[in-house]
Amino acid sequence: GEPGKALARFDAAERLAPDLTGLALARGAAYVALGRHEDALAAARSHQKESGPDAAGFVLEGRAREGQNKL
């Protein structure tokens, strides 16, 4: 995929539908793919705040921490 382009599309989607769920999780996956692990961790926390703790949020958090060598 093209995570950079995906981030731009997520921004556009958020402008059109600010209450769209799942954007933080999708952004986080793109950030991991780009090596932006701190941003990915922030997105995981945002997802968990928005949706509550769930497996997808924990997986994203784990991938972000793994990228930071904190696992």
Q: What is the averaged pLDDT score?
A: 94
Assess the beta-strand content as a share of residues. under 5%
Measured between the Cα atoms of the first and last residue, the distance is 26 Å
The biggest beta sheet is recorded as: none
Number of helices: 4
Say what oligomer this is.
Answer: single chain
Elements, N to C (H/E): HHHH
Rough outline: flat
Helicity, in percent?
A: over 70%
Instruction: Kindly state the number of beta strands.
Output: 0
Rg, nearest Å: 12 Å
Structural class given helices, strands, pairing? Answer: mainly alpha
Low-confidence stretches: none
Structure description:
The chain has 71 residues and is an all-alpha fold. It is built from four helices and no strands. It has helices at 3-16, 23-34, 37-51, 55-67. Helix 2 runs antiparallel to helix 3 and helix 2 (23-34) runs parallel beside helix 4 (55-67). The radius of gyration is 12 Å and the shape is flat.
Could you name the key traits of this structure?
mainly alpha; single chain; 71 residues
Short description:
With 71 residues, this protein is an all-alpha fold. The protein has 4 helices and no strands. The model has no long low-confidence stretch (mean pLDDT 94).
Structural topology:
Elements: H1 3-16, H2 23-34, H3 37-51, H4 55-67
Helix pairs in contact: 1-2, 2-3, 2-4, 3-4
